[in-house]
Amino acid sequence: MSEPETTASEVTESELIRIRREKLQQIIDAGFDPYPTRAETDVTIEEIVTRHGSDTSEALESAKRNVRIAGRVMTIRDHGKTAFLDLSEGGARLQVYCRRDGLSDKEWTLYQNLDVGDWVAITGVVFRTRKGELSVKAASLGFLSKALRPLPEKWHGLTDVEQRYRQRYLDLIVNDDVKAVFRTRARIVRYLRQFFDERGYTEVETPMMQPLAGGATARPFVTHHNALDMDLFLRIAPELYLKRLIVGGLQRVYEINRNFRNEGISTRHNPEFTMLEFYQAYADYRELMDLTETLLSGLVREVRGEPGVQFGDHQIDFSGPWKRYTMLEAIQAFAPLRGIEVRPGILDDREGVAQLVVQTRRHPTRVDVPDAPPDDRVQALADMSYGKMVAELFETVAEQHLIQPTFVTDFPVEVSPLSKQRKDDPRYVERFELYVGGMEIANAFSELNDPDEQARRFTQQIGERAKGDDEAHQMDEDYVRALEFGMPPTGGEGIGIDRLVMILTNSASIRDVILFPHMRKR
Known about the structure:
The longest helix is centred in the middle third of the chain and has 23 residues, at 176-198. By secondary structure, the protein is of the alpha+beta class. The protein has three domains: 8-145, CATH 2.40.50.140; 186-322 and 404-512, Bira Bifunctional Protein, Domain 2 (BirA Bifunctional Protein, domain 2, 2-Layer Sandwich); 325-401, no CATH class. It is 35% helix and 24% strand. It is elongated. It has an eight-stranded mixed beta sheet with strand order 6-10-11-18-17-16-15-14, sandwiched between helices.
């Protein structure tokens, strides 16, 4: 059998790797350690650019500041007996000026065998070139590591998106704006911690492997503990454990946690994602709405320096007060945009809501609506409760229109098994979701603390599971037992950090704000 043909691109890359390995050997032969243990530095490239970026040539000449820096070579411009290297480190770049008569023979040999992507150490004086570019004049050149593979030349095209996610290290090397996204993410998380720490919350950690998947309605990932010989679930939410802590007397708690949900992948969904969850004794969902507005408006000002952000085609204003709808009000406001008439009273009973859901299912516009024949979509209504149909109708006709920060309140009890019912209308619960940019950012309840009612809700969810709802909540007898010891009135909330970062960095996909998103096998 003949060998498969090798493509031209494979030959080219293979040849480049061979040449780079030969250069590495020449560097070794010149007396350099190919992989030294450390680099002697006294300042970062970013610090030099920040401190001296506005200094004149005369000021730099007078100061004669000697520095020891390290970085990755991003460009090499050879001019015979002189050369220019552009070094990158942590998102900042700086030019290095090398002269043949300013380096030893050994160091010049090193320069001659450098490639784009290599790591080097430089000692020299900060100055400006005749063209006015901030630079370091190299007095010594050291070797730190060889890039045996060439960096990609064209990286910004749409055809490279998959490769950027799969090889994030290359994305970070080539695209400084990607580094900026993840530095902003770190600032966001730091601000959230500071906000809650200053208000007397205790940061805690709860199990990531749980005997029951609880705290949300989602399909879990399952693993097995060999020593205990039992199945465990990767947590879909830390909620039930955090509320156990409220029972135990920790009155304000929060956790920045990783959650895992065995769901589809989209521009807004990743199976592994990060949430902030916090719980406050003696508070209800209305108090948390005010807290959330204070939290996020302050965060935006801290990160962006102003109350507004650009997200896609929209300028989003986080300065309050934010718009508030009940779920039924949102349906009434936005259904006409789909050409659906919401007659007075049609949302009051199951039959009326079913009529509207039938219309939306016959003509879906959202890409995540199952692509089933219209008759099958309509037939599926037979086992759906009033509350589930109301929630679906809202998601279909209203959600994508909630661009400016908007609280949606009063969810049906059937889709809120952990929330307190409204005293004036027990069909609905004391719950809100915050929408920004057409997607859910936060979800909060006045937490249900009646153990008997909680047990009844879990039993109802078991019935939904028996009908085929894999995301229905399971019975958690220990949680009910905890409530029987008494939990004070409590407000709890979860905020999706990944989606929040998307909005504050104007990122179109959740995979743009997760360093290593999950991908299909090639």
